[in-house]
Fold:
Amino acid sequence: MAEKIQAIRGMNDILPDESHQWEFLEHTVRNWLSDYGYRNIRMPIVEDTRLFVRSIGEATDIVEKEMYTFTDSLNGDSLTLRPEGTASCLRAVTEHNLLYNTTQRLWYVGPMFRHERPQKGRYRQFHQIGVEALGFNGPDIDAELILMTADLWRRLGLAPYLKLHLNTLGSSAERAEHRQALIAYLEQHKDALDEDGQRRLYSNPLRVLDSKTPSMQAICDNAPRLIDHLGEASRRHYDDWRAMLQAVGIDYVENPRLVRGLDYYNLSVFEWVTTELGAQGTVCGGGRYDSLIEQLGGKPAPAVGFAMGVERLMLLLQDKALLPAAPAPDVYLVNQGEGAALYALTVAQALRAAGLKVIQHCGEASFKSQFKKADASGAVVAVVLGDNEVAQQQAVVKPLRGGGEQTTVARAELAAAVLAHLNR
Structure:
């Protein structure tokens, strides 16, 4: 027997017993985004490596340690499996000039890839739902994104389990001024920094404040705050954003240590977090990235958006029993005897044409075996076809759930008889 080949560690199969739950979430998300005027965009999984180096930043963990990068054996190009969606989306927008004299509200869903240590809710192939609002300057669109996400939590039943954290990262000049003050402060505590803190001290000091190491919490809490380095325009944007959220009744926590793991963010940043998933508590995160389109070669344009991890959303929905049961067919079509298989094919198609979900038994099996499968399928009704039914152009309708008597009906009356039982 040949050796079995297994999936790569951290890249998981989604099996039929679970995939219907993903379909439920995706259906809810599509309807939700349509209600807010967002249109779907689909980008390649593989991109030029330079796209992510330029947008995410060379000093980030993603570029330094986590990207799946390889050389194209045909032409020597350096290619990367996308680690996040925003850079790919804005590359497509720039390449196809989608912002010419207009704005865009876009969304996408699909797999992303990062070489991390797999753990609950965090995998090497993971799935994200991303939303990008492009060409909008003011804090009103930032507020709309918060309202949107709050609305999704309400639709999914997750609102009681999620809390909004927000912060501002100011402008690049303000961050540069704060960076100098932060490095000077952290140098005074250099010996107390953990391994990541030591590594990030000069390359990405803002990320040091995101440390979860208990011994570093006091250092991070007392570090210089970026908000104290904001100019008038940045502070006004932040104040107006918060005022809008307060006006519409959105509760939030101001978190001065909230940063994003990607270099391109500025001004508004936010996360929706939960305490129900242990350490992996961020379900959705985003913010503003007004310089990214220009970095990718496009005409300067403001941009803001967010991404949510599908796996973490699924974990939370499963934990709170908020997902639907697996869908069941209306009819399981049992058949046996000479000519029954062909008769069953035509009967099944007629029932489907009437709007019914039908599983037809295929292959040889006893009536007893078929009825076991019919019951296990969850079908409400079994339609039974044997030699007599074939000869008489009839069918037996046998209720499997909800009670009722078994009846024999003419083929022309079968769909109506099944629908009548389902509507009881």
Q: What stands out?
A: The CA atoms of residues 194 and 213 lie 7 Å apart. The radius of gyration is 28 Å. The longest strand covers residues 104-113. The chain is about 40% helix and 20% strand.
